[in-house]
Amino acid sequence: MAEILSQEEIDALLSAIGKEEAPQELPETLIEEKVSIYDFKRPDKVSKEQIRALKNLHDKFARNFSSKLSGFLRTIIEIDVASVDQMTYGEFVLSLSQSVSFNVINLYPLEGSGIIAIEPDIGFVLIDRLLGGFGTTFQNIRPFTDIEQSILLDIVNLMLSDLKNIWAPIAEIRFEVTAQETSPNVVQIVAPSEVVVLIVFEVKMGDYKGIINFCIPVITLEPILTKISTHDMLSISRKEHVNRVVNILQILDNVLMRIEVYLGDFNISVENFLNLKPNDIYILHKNTNEFSEVYCNGVKKFEAKLGKVKNKKAIKIAKLTF
Pick from 77, 116, 147, 247: most CB atoms within 10 A? Predict the structure, then answer.
């Protein structure tokens, strides 16, 4: 038979339950802690500092190339870096239109290839301008023909020459077009899951604008990836400036300059001037002990004394004038 509790025992049990400790609350630090989402299938292989350095590098390229392309097409071209991101090669291909000018670029001596993709909205504008038009596009976008691809090749080669100069402080890369296609699905330079760096250039010409993509697989950049950083770019930029000054001075060493010395003046009538003959002597309005002005390419730079060295007329620089 079950034991029946008395009223006193029931009261004791109820009072014991009321004295039990309440569950402890979690510390505020644990509650407020932020969690960063990380996808282990798509690790960031290029640091934010390297992405920033690549953007600075190609900002400089965009300025140089816009000037060169403006002169080449004889019209005003504006080029800006729209973005620099890392993504998978499959995502890059999906982001392109189906009628893109797809140029495969060899990056010798690096192992692998890159991509320069010109979207049709700006590609046809460039073709029209190269063929003597005002730079207009078609209403209905269609795939590029082989002839149009060869015309755009001039633009791509012009772009590659500037890219070679911009990348020279990091690595001597020889950019060369190895294939041209009109569809991004025809050529696959790496596996779709491989991470690539995508530099997107926005090109403006008149009322038209479009995109040129420059894609480089990270696996191709790995041998020189450690050289790409904001600090290294800054030191390279300073070194380039010093080298450029030295090069300019070396070039100027061989430049010929016209030197003229002003000896003095005198007044003469037109009749006497027309009757001048050898051994005629006229007195200048200047003493022999006065300074003579020396002009370099028409600009007064020095004052000098007149004299003679080994039976040859000469001047001795006395002071610099401004």
Answer: 116
Residue-number span of the structural domain to which 299 is assigned? 259-271+281-320
Is residue 21's pLDDT more than 60?
no
Cα angle at 136 between 153 and 68, to 5 degrees?
45
Structure tokens at 131: 């063929």
Residue 182 has pLDDT above 60, yes or no: yes
* Beta strand extents in the chain (DSSP E only): 78-88, 101-108, 113-118, 174-181, 195-205, 208-217, 259-262, 292-296, 299-309, 312-320
Is 150 in the same domain as 293? Answer: no
Domain membership of residue 7 (yes or no) is: no
Given a cut of 80, is residue 23 above it in pLDDT? Answer: no
Q: What are the tens digits of pLDDT across the range 234-279?
A: 555 555 556 667 777 777 777 788 888 888 888 888 988 888 888 8
Residue 315 CA from chain centroid, whole number: 49
Q: Which residues of 36-56 are buried (b: 16+ CB within 10 A; e: fewer)?
A: eeeeeeeeebbeeebbebbee
Same domain, 65 and 138: yes
In this structure, the dihedral spanned by the alpha carbons of residues 57, 62, 64 and 68, taken in order and rounded to 10 degrees, is 150
**Same domain for 227 and 101:** yes
Q: Return mean pLDDT, the chain.
A: 83
| Mean pLDDT on 59-67 | 91
Residue 136 phi/psi, 5-degree rounding, is: -120, 165
